Amino acid sequence: MLSGAILAPMALPVLPVETYVQYVAFIGIEQPRIETHRLGPLPQLFADMHGWQEMVEATARAYHALPPEVRAGTAIFCNNYGEPGAVDLFGPRYGLPKAIGNHRSYWLWGYGGATGASVLVLGDTAEGAARVCREVEVVGEVGHPYSMPYEHFPILHCRGLREPIEQLWPRLRRWN
Predict the structure, then answer these.
(1) How many whole angstroms separate alpha carbon 101 and alpha carbon 81?
(2) pTM, entire model
(3) How far apart are CA 151 and CA 142, in angstroms?
C-alpha cells in the first residue's frame, strides 16, 4: 500500500506540475517512455494535458489579424492529430473554422472547402511550408512550458499553393 501511495503521482495528475517535477527528481523514478520523442519537464502523458487551449488562442489571434476578405477563405491546417482536435474543440468559442490536417484520420476527412489560397499552418517550419506554398510568413508562436517539445512551433500564414490542393492532398498524408 505504501508503494502505491509513493507511485500514485506518477500515474495520476494529483500534484501541481512544479511539485511533480521535484517529486520525480527526489524519488529518482521516471515514467516509462511511450514514444521516442524528446521530452520536456513532464512525461508525455502529462505533457499532453498542457498547451492546447493556448495554442488555439494564439491561432485565433493570427486568424483574426488577417484582413476580413482573406480570413473568409483561410483554412487552418495542422500537422499532428492533437492540433486539429484542439482547434475543433476550443476553436468555436474563438470564431475559428474547423481544422484540416494530414495526420492519421484527419487526412481521411479531407480538406473541406479549402482552396489553398490562404492557410494558417500549425506544426511545421517555414522551410517545410515553403515546399508547398509560394509565400510563407510567421504570424504567431505556440509553446507552453509543460507541453511536448514538438508542440512548440511558429504559426505560419501561407499563400499560394504551388499546385492545386486536389493534387497535393494525396501526398500530404502522414500515418506516423
Answers:
(1) 7
(2) 0.88
(3) 7
